[in-house]
Specification:
It is globular, with a radius of gyration of 23 Å. The model has no long low-confidence stretch (mean pLDDT 90). Strand 4 (70-75) and strand 5 (78-81) form a beta hairpin. The protein is α+β, with helices and mostly antiparallel strands. The chain has 3 domains: 3-121, Rossmann fold, CATH 3.40.50.20; 149-214, 2-Layer Sandwich (Dna Ligase, domain 1), CATH 3.30.1490.20; 220-312, ATP-grasp fold, B domain (D-amino Acid Aminotransferase, Chain A, domain 1). Helix content is 31%, strand content 25%.
Length: 372
């Protein structure tokens, strides 16, 4: 039986949502694989939580200071118990369920690659790029993908006030988003300069920069997910999400508040649906992605499609978009794991020989003749 490590938690405002996603994936995968639930402590380090079967189990363990959970460290090709680091236990594939923070932002992906642990999730460059809304805007523009006009305000620039003229040029209303947060945390709509100042102040409590974007009145919110298997890109149906608010709030997403609802598949003109499918396919292919991602689009009243953002670790890994039953959702996760375990070509790493050059003698360092 293959061993799959499911990573969740981390230092993030979305940590609790990550716990839900991680436990969900653990329970769906455990029938076919030996699954290791690995919790990323907010203060750093990894805990192996072998007796965690549900969210209540996690909460009880947390209240008891995680007694009985063993600290582990990553080693080449697997993990080891922190108290017995020389005994390596192989990991056949890792699955990243960390929302936000360094877990989704590429740090975990880089660690897995460094320790030669196969991963079923997006790699470090993709993760880092799309966690930062400001950077991803630039990348999407470079690929010719339609996005709404926007600008970025850094915390250190706030007092200078240059954002006031930029916002006036953009035109109100605007939407303010902390650059590296998700799940609607810290997002505000501003109708005036005064409201924008308050929105930026809130954003800087949570992040060091904020994206200020033109707000589309009367927009439609559309989602689509994609993953790769056997060399082909598979797309989900397009989902439309409805909200009683001007933005889809955290409470509507996760707490059952408000009147949030959705329609799957969305009722769209064929041309619009085709445009969205082509855009997500192009971005996924050009970025050479792996794993499942969810792209969020905006549709204006005039029928214009805008790429909003891309989530490299979407809630429940967007499994619900690929099927209504647990069997279908399990099939998606298993497809991700099998793709993650596919052998990847290793590239040659060679020595340049420069350290053997006469100028770097063992007894002394000699300055090259051409050096100043």
């Amino acid at each position: 039986m293959k061993t799959v490590a499911v990573f969740f938690g981390g230092r993030s405002n979305e940590r609790e949502i990550s716990v839900i996603t991680g436990i969900y994936c653990f329970n769906l995968l455990k029938e076919r694989y030996r699954v290791l639930p690995v919790y990323l402590l907010p203060e750093g380090g990894f805990l192996l939580m072998e007796n965690i079967l549900g969210v209540r189990d996690f909460c009880r363990a947390q209240e008891n200071g995680f007694k009985g959970c063993r600290e582990v460290v990553l080693v080449r090709g697997g993990y080891a118990y922190a108290k017995r680091p020389r005994k390596r236990i192989p990991i056949d594939c890792a699955l990243n369920c960390c929302h936000g923070g360094m877990g989704e932002g590429g740090v975990l992906s880089a660690l897995l690659e460094w320790f030669a642990i196969p991963s079923a999730s997006p790699d470090m460059p993709t993760s880092a790029l799309f966690l930062d809304k400001s950077l991803s805007k630039s990348a999407l523009l470079g690929m010719g993908v339609p996005v709404l006009p926007s600008f970025t305000v850094r915390e250190g620039e706030f007092a200078e006030g240059g954002w006031k003229q930029q916002a006036a040029s953009l035109g109100y209303p605007v939407i303010v988003k902390p650059s590296k947060l998700g799940s609607s945390v810290g997002i505000s709509v501003a109708e005036s300069e005064e409201e924008l100042e308050k929105a930026l102040t809130l954003a800087f409590r949570l992040d060091a920069s904020a994206l200020v974007e033109k707000y589309l009145t009367g927009k439609r919110d559309l989602n689509i997910a994609a993953y790769r298997t056997g060399g082909r890109i598979v797309l989900s149906p397009i989902e439309e999400v409805f909200s009683a608010s001007r933005i889809l709030t955290f409470g509507e997403k996760y707490e059952g508040t408000g009147e949030r609802s959705h329609k799957l598949p969305a009722d769209l003109p064929q041309e619009t649906a085709q445009t969205i499918s082509e855009l997500i396919t192009r971005v996924y292919a050009q970025m050479n992605m792996r794993g499942v991602v969810r792209a969020d689009f905006l549709l204006s009243r005039e029928g214009e499609v805008y790429f909003n953002e891309l989530n490299t670790v979407p809630g429940t890994l967007a499994a619900y978009l690929f099927g209504e039953s647990l069997t279908e959702e399990r099939a998606l996760l298993e497809a991700l794991i099998e793709e993650g375990m596919r052998p990847r070509a290793e590239r040659e790493v060679f020595d340049t020989g420069v350290l053997s050059a006469p100028v770097f003698g063992a007894k002394s360092f000699k300055r090259p003749a051409h050096a100043p």
